[in-house]
């Protein structure tokens, strides 16, 4: 078998050297590899080896890694541990090693890798055929190798690729043995035996679908492929059943890979759980799609739903800051970035199967790693051939909802300032009660932060690395976000059922003037009887060193309420234009809805029309100016009360509190300005440039704010609150001055 | 005049091209420039221009800077502001501009720079001859251009250089005018008119001395030179008078530049105020020394006190972490580093006038900047000619005190771990009450921090950029440091008079075994009747991923006391092996001596022989293991109570509290281990490797600690508490085992 195979390759190499265009020597159905690596791809790669630096280096690292593993010997232990324990870690490691060894066999044509894969697979086969459910019982869907089906699915997604790579190396008898005793029952366990895991629209199910589908493609098993694409035939879950996170298991009966593309992705490619989970879900989406593209090109999977899979990669890359770190919307752990391996997959696939966007090459170059497959080769060649261009992140609006009608996320970019305006829908079970919240970045550094999740992923000492209870009691609550909390309760009363049935709506966005980026959205029903509308602009104007933020939050309510509006600034308090006192002892600000986790560190009252606050962070100065009245309270808060395990970061906010108020308008500017160097000890431009913000008018239809700088220049920003289409024309008289414009806003 | 000068230069260049060795064409006394730039240096520089990248780039940046200034025009405003105000900033800027323009005139031979310097100097002359004292009255020694003589002296140190550069460009009449109306009265004002400023051993006086001496050298005025070197003849200050910081003005009558070298520098080159102020004082020390070397070589200034000036540069560079940031000992602002311009001066002078240490070139390359003078040329040529070697920082012990007998600072370096053990003397008025304290770094990042100062230097919003009251109430206090506080009072009762008359003493240091770095020091009289001895080792041992710290603090007291021993860790609490409770409300831990600034955030009691605590910082894991008894209290504290202006950083400590105890021993290990990546989300080696620490014996003469790892390996560390010379031999029987060794400690 081996000799034939080698000869066959020699023939293929000669063949591919004499003919330049790609020719399928044998049909897709029977030639291997065909799933991710393809027979043609292997020929192309071999022809280029030694001549494609990023690829060569990636290959070298993988070879070193796998050679070291082979030297250690094979271990396929009887499963017994949760994540963090040995058997969990070993099986997790094995799936990586198998996939990479398979690839090395194909690329290097060295039999030792094929033998290693075969030997390990045979050990799995030997164990699996009598393996009971995993002994740990915590999961809603127990696996066999792992405590949860999710990890079993991860395993199969990778191992399908390994099997594909050594398919031709194995005898038919060996293949039958593996398929009968390992792969087929494995695929059945995570699907037909675990419908509560498999038969859903959920990132877990996506992994399950991909696992079943990929092994189906390798085995050429149409039943498995169909099960992957469309779900388990004839199985319908209880539509009212809920999962551990409080989400419905399967409210509308949809399932399968196509439904998992259909539902969570908006037409713009925004994934409803947010970028952190999109990154996690990305790998099975893309790698299974790549397999489908290669084996079942007639499905045109990359064109499905108007090409949403490739769009989603662009969306995800745009959901990262200047350093490539994803914005931690919803449950997101800070620091996750496009350097994650899933994004290597995403960038390479997007480049190869998309339109060869040269901007992607610059990210690939930063990643300094490519997939060892056809797409990685394409990227490595692109970089090598000097096609790289910068990946220029611009302002972007990403709709949410499967039809793009459930709010969205607006990213306003202006020079080094990035503002993330979140008016998205609930975000499934990982969503936060943070409607119309925002976060602010300068050069990739957080200025006004989104807290992210309360979890230390995979750090066993912190609740086993799982979600901490503070994720629910703090991180998801409205008061943990830079938006309005009414009467110390969270949006939608903190209830998933309500949140998941409502969402904000885009009012407008306007990015055409490069100096002025604006996004405006509305939300009803976060609180009964209260409507909110937030318009945020990032404005680069003469006289200002850097773009500044203008933030207008309009609240219309049918009764008097208390409104709390925090800004979670990072850094050190520099100055205020109001007096405040500090308490002798620190007490929690409340007893529920997140307030129990805040200490009150300082308390003041505004005594001016504009309340000002400046701070210093990472050598840069920032100033908040907010229109205020003498009843406004100003609170300095700090996170950390009622936190018995020190799970929360002790970070601060300045909070505006407006009591006994029905309709109201919060108007603030945030300026980034100047710098401080501890080396030269020079403070440059350390003060706000804004003398006064003023509400000029505020009606149902228009809100107009004047911005006056220190040297007396005044600009007027008018936003249209009702009709704001690009085409709409507006006429407005303010203080006997006539203003006429067309479009969503006026600024002059 | 100009034509002659140009012809003269042409002659000189030709001359220097035909002869290779340096020849003084005219005597030092009359040729100009001669102070920092020399006539010969200028010839050498011109010959190399365009061929010395770092120099060329530095020159280019300076030229751009000065050309822009010239375009703006000259402004010499009537002085009226404190620092932060316009006139202060302008005069400060002018001194920089004058010095640089003078250098450009010499190097580029472009008359426009000379004219610019002349024009500005004439404006100063015009103003100065009738200028009264500066209107602001806060300083103990008011200047004329600035609110304090210190800044006037800064001005003259720089402007002397400018004057020297254009000396030959000016007519004799012009020189007479400047010297009579500006320089001579200027020098008199900061010296004979301000003896309380000038006639001291203090960094302020050093600036004054250098200013007077440098203008004296340019003017060839022996009286000024002598006044600079030896102080004002016949003036003696009241020996009991004190300055604003509580230090004596001049207790022993010493004054002048030589006394300012003699007193504050130890023979090892440690400056008694610490690295932050050494950096500040460095410039006048070195630039005046360079001038003296050039004009009065017979003084052999760089050999003075066994070459202490050049040694001090080496000491200073060693007092920086892996990133080049100075350890914030005493009053030190974090972030100050060897990228500061004063260190460009220091590195270049050290290289040129010292032994051309190739390690200095690597720092110069990082600085990417050289002085535009003879020394900068030497460095630029060294780098260009490939002589650069890494500046290899090793463990080092730096004695303190003018004779090296007043304690010191030990820096223990072992792979990426740096431990700074401070057993120095009081450190003049900038000292902290922190005897036997330490701080710990990994790869240039703080692990166990020294708080530094409570000040935002030059940030006007924070108390005008001056010292904040929390510097005294918090930063200087013992409880703000990683050492023992007895009965909630600071060392020496927080009194400068007592602190400045006492100091710790080195017991031993041993750096010969590269795997084991040890330093031990003793101190008496921090508290009456209490002696302390601390021995700190950084040990690289088999079975440990990284070097760990072993910390032994032995306290011998004549009565029962309470001992508080904090570790100011940075990062997030991960786990403890003891139970603790958190209070519902946060209260200050005490009401004075720094305790009023600490909140108690958690309280526990040890229930084991070893108390363990782990934390995570910047993606790295750390564990503290400390030998404890069941009466030991464990407190989690956080800085920030009674801080009405948010001047303090809200950072944490874990504090061991031992009550009602006479003699005692605190023994702890600190391990750095593993890593966490938020990109791969993998936690590697996240747990302590130490199973148990145990006191095996503790006598007057010996303390022996056993360290047992998780896999059961036990090592014994014995430190000799009394006789610890390298030659001493020791015999000791512990549990029937005999131990024999020679030297300070035993480890096996």
List its salient traits.
homodimer; 748 residues; Beta-galactosidase, Chain A, domain 5; 27 strands; 24% strand; Heparinase (chains A, B); lyase (chains A, B)
Radius of gyration of chain A from CA coordinates: 28 Å
Instruction: Count every helix of chain A, treating DSSP H or I runs of 4 or more residues as helices.
Output: 18
- Fill in the CATH topology of one domain in chain A: Beta-galactosidase, Chain A, domain 5
Q: Quick one: how many beta strands of chain A?
A: 27
What does the largest sheet of chain A look like?
8 strands, antiparallel
In the sheet with the most strands of chain A, the strands line up as 7-8-9-10-19-16-15-12
State the assembly state of the protein chains. Answer: homodimer
Low-confidence stretches of chain A: 1-29
Biggest interface reads: A-B, 53 and 53 residues
Specify the CATH architecture of one domain in chain A. Answer: Distorted Sandwich
Structural class category of chain A: alpha+beta
Estimate the mean pLDDT confidence of chain A.
Answer: 94
Task: Report the CATH C-level class of one domain in chain A.
Answer: Mainly Beta
Assign an overall shape of chain A. Answer: elongated
Termini gap of chain A? 78 Å
Q: Quote the beta fraction of chain A.
A: 15-25%
Proportion of residues in helical segments of chain A:
25-40%
Protein name (chains A, B): Heparinase
Pfam family, one (chains A, B): Alginate_lyase
GO molecular function (chains A, B): lyase activity
Subcellular location (chains A, B): Periplasm
């Amino acid at each position: 078998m081996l000799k034939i195979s080698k000869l066959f390759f020699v023939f293929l190499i000669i063949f591919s050297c004499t003919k330049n265009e790609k020719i399928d020597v044998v049909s897709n159905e029977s030639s291997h590899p065909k799933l991710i690596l393809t027979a043609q791809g292997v020929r192309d790669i071999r022809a280029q080896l030694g001549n494609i630096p990023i690829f060569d280096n990636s290959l070298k690292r993988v070879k070193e890694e796998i050679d070291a593993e082979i030297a250690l010997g094979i271990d396929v232990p009887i499963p017994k541990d949760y994540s963090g324990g040995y058997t969990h870690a070993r099986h997790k490691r094995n799936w990586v090693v198998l996939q990479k060894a398979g690839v090395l066999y194909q690329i290097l044509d060295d039999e030792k890798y094929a033998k290693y894969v075969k030997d390990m697979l045979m050990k799995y086969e030997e164990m699996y055929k009598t393996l009971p459910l995993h002994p740990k019982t915590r999961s809603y869907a127990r696996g066999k190798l792992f405590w949860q089906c999710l990890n079993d699915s991860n395993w199969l997604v990778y191992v399908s690729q390994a099997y594909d790579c050594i398919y031709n190396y194995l005898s038919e008898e060996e293949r039958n043995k593996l398929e009968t005793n390992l792969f087929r029952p494995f695929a059945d366990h995570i699907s037909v035996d675990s419908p509560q895991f498999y038969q859903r629209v959920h990132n877990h199910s996506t992994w399950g679908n991909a696992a079943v589908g990929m092994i189906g493609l390798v085995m050429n098993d149409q039943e498995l492929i169909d099960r992957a694409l469309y779900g388990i035939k004839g199985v319908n879950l209880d539509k009212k059943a809920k999962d551990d996170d409080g989400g419905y298991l399967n409210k509308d009966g949809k399932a399968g890979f196509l439904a998992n593309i259909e539902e969570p992705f908006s037409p713009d490619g925004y994934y409803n759980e947010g970028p952190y989970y999109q990154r996690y879900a990305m790998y099975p989406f893309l790698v299974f799609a790549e397999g489908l593209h290669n084996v079942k090109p007639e499905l045109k999977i990359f064109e499905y739903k108007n090409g949403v899979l490739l769009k989603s990669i662009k969306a995800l890359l745009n959901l990262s800051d200047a350093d490539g770190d994803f914005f931690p919307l919803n449950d997101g752990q800070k620091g996750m970035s496009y350097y994650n391996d899933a994004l290597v997959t995403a960038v390479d696939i997007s480049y190869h199967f998309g339109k060869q966007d040269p901007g992607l090459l610059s990210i690939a170059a930063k990643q300094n790693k490519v997939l060892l497959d056809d797409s990685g080769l394409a990227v490595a060649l692109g970089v090598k051939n000097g096609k790289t261009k910068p990946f220029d992140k611009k302002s972007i609006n990403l709709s949410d909802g499967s039809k793009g009608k459930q709010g969205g996320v607006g990213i306003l970019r202006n020079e080094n300032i990035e503002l993330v305006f979140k008016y998205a829908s609930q975000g499934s079970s990982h969503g936060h009660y943070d409607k119309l919240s925002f976060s602010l970045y300068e050069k990739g550094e957080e200025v006004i932060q989104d807290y992210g999740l309360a979890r230390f992923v995979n750090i066993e000492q912190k609740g086993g690395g799982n979600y901490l209870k503070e994720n629910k009691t703090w991180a998801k609550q409205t008061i943990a976000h830079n938006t309005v909390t009414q009467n110390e309760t969270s949006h939608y009363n903190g209830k998933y059922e309500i949140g998941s049935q409502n969402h904000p709506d885009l009012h407008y966005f306007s990015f055409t003037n490069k100096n002025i980026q604006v996004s405006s959205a509305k939300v009803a029903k976060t609180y009964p009887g209260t409507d909110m509308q937030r318009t945020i602009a990032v404005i680069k104007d003469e006289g200002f060193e850097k773009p500044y933020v203008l933030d207008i939050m309009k609240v219309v309510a049918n009764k008097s309420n208390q409104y709390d509006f925090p800004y979670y600034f990072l850094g050190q308090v520099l100055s205020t234009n109001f007096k405040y006192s500090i308490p002798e002892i620190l007490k929690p600000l409340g007893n529920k809805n997140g307030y129990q986790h805040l200490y009150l560190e300082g308390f003041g009252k505004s005594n001016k029309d504009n309340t000002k606050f400046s701070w210093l962070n990472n050598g840069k100065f920032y100033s908040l100016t907010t229109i205020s009245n003498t009843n406004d309270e100003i609170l300095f808060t700090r996170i950390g009360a009622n936190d018995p395990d020190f799970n929360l970061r002790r970070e601060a906010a300045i909070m505006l509190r407006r009591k006994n108020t029905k309709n109201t308008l919060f108007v603030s500017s945030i300026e980034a300005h100047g710098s401080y160097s501890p080396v030269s000890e020079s403070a440059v431009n350390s003060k706000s440039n804004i003398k006064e913000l003023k509400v000029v008018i505020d009606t149902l239809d228009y809100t107009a704010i004047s911005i006056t700088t220190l040297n007396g220049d005044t600009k007027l920003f008018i936003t249209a609150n009702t009709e704001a289409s690009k085409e709409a024309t507006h006429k407005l008289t303010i203080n006997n001055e006539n203003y006429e414009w067309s479009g969503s806003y006026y600024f002059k």
